[in-house]
Specification:
8 helices, Globin-like
Length: 208
C-alpha cells in the first residue's frame, strides 16, 4: 500500500541518517534544531500520563524481557533504576541541542558504566527497548517523524557513550599502570607514608 511504501521510505531515510551520524561523527546543528521540537513535545506527552518511575519501569521491563542475561549487571531494584534512567533521559532532552552538555553527562556516568560492564553494543538493545516503550505509550502519536527524531538522538548518545567508555577505560588504565609502577618501587607502608606526607604538604591544616 501507499502507507506501507511511505513507512519503508521513512525507515530507509532514518537508517541513512543514523549511518551518516556514525560515519561523520559531526554534530549537526541543523538536525538538532529540526528534531528538538519533536523530541521535547513527545517527551512532554509521555510525562502527561505517566510518572518518570512508571516510564522507567516499563522500559526496563521490555529491556530485561529481551536481555535476561544482562540483568545481573544491574544491582538496584527496577523502580529505582527506572526513575534514575528517566531522570537521565530528561536531562538529555533538556540538553538536546547542546552536544557539550550531552558529552559531559555521559562522561560523568562513564566510570559507573565501565565498572558494571556496560558495552557499546548494549546501546542498540536499550534503544530497541526504549522505542518499543515509546510506541506503546504514545500509540498513534509515535509517528515516523517522532521515531526519526529519537533515533537521531539515540545514535548520538550511542556515539558519545562509546567515546566516554573509551576515555574512562584509558584513564583507568593509566591510573592502574601508575599505581603498579609505584608499588614496584615502594612497599605499601612506604606508599602510605608518601601519600600522607604529600597530603599534609599540600594541606598543612589537615595535619594532626
Amino acid at each position: 500500500s501507499d502507507q506501507s511504501a511511505s513507512n519503508n521510505s521513512n525507515r530507509i531515510s532514518v537508517n541513512q541518517r543514523v549511518r551518516r551520524v556514525q560515519r561523520l561523527g559531526q554534530f549537526s546543528v541543523y538536525e538538532a534544531s529540526r528534531y528538538e521540537p519533536l523530541i521535547r513535545q513527545s517527551w512532554e506527552k509521555l510525562l502527561e500520563g505517566h510518572t518518570r518511575q512508571e516510564l522507567g519501569l516499563k522500559f526496563y521491563s521490555k529491556f530485561f524481557t529481551d536481555n535476561t542475561s544482562l540483568h545481573s549487571m544491574f544491582t538496584r531494584t527496577s523502580d529505582v533504576m527506572g526513575e534514575k534512567f528517566a531522570d537521565i533521559l530528561a536531562d538529555i532532552v533538556t540538553a538536546v541541542e547542546d552536544v557539550t552538555a550531552m558529552k559531559n553527562k555521559l562522561k560523568a556516568l562513564a566510570p559507573m558504566h565501565l565498572k558494571v560492564g556496560v558495552k557499546i553494543e548494549h546501546s542498540a538493545r536499550m534503544g530497541k527497548a526504549l522505542f518499543a516503550t515509546f510506541e506503546d505509550l504514545l500509540a498513534e502519536e509515535w509517528t515516523s517523524e517522532v521515531r526519526a527524531a529519537w533515533e537521531w538522538l539515540w545514535s548520538w548518545l550511542s556515539q558519545l557513550l562509546h567515546q566516554s567508555l573509551e576515555d574512562a577505560r584509558n584513564e583507568a588504565t593509566v591510573v592502574t599502570y601508575s599505581w603498579d609502577l609505584a608499588m614496584d618501587s615502594n612497599t605499601a607502608e612506604e606508599m602510605g607514608e608518601l601519600l600522607f606526607d604529600t597530603l599534609f604538604e599540600l594541606a598543612p591544616n589537615l595535619k594532626p
